[in-house]
Known about the structure:
Blueprint: H1 4-18, H2 21-39, E1 46-48, E2 55-57, E3 61-65, H3 72-75, E4 81-85, H4 86-91, H5 96-107, H6 111-120, H7 127-146
Antiparallel strand pairs: 1-2, 3-4
Helix pairs in contact: 2-7
Amino acid sequence: FPSHDTKKKKAEARAKKANSISKLTEVLDKTFSLFIRLRDTDRNGIFTCCTCHEKKEWHQLNAGHFISRRFMNTRWDEENVHGQCSKCNVILSGMQYDYSLFMDVRYGEGAAKRMHSKAQEVKKFTTDEIKVLITYYQNLVRDLQKDKSFQTPQV
Length: 155
């Protein structure tokens, strides 16, 4: 039988893993994605793709990043991520040129260029910073869910 110390060590290892940067990043990615998708849909679950401008239903919506998620400084930047249909985001590789036009219209001339510059700044998030962001976006998601008439995943 495993000793009490072994069980305790395994429990500590599980707790440490749950609080690891990679695990917290995964949780934040899911929560932030849900926030973006809720933010960019209307009350009935319809959204307009930021690149092809077609109106589509909630289940066809991705949280499309203008700058790739690999750049941590812009990964969870609300101005970098918008509702994008899966065709534009995945099949058409994000439609970067059209996305840049959208950015400049939405946030002003030069917004796409500013986001590129911001992405080049190195940012390393601490576990505490990620935990704060998770809580922040979970609260926003809960607030947005109250205003929607369609069923969404829970956070």
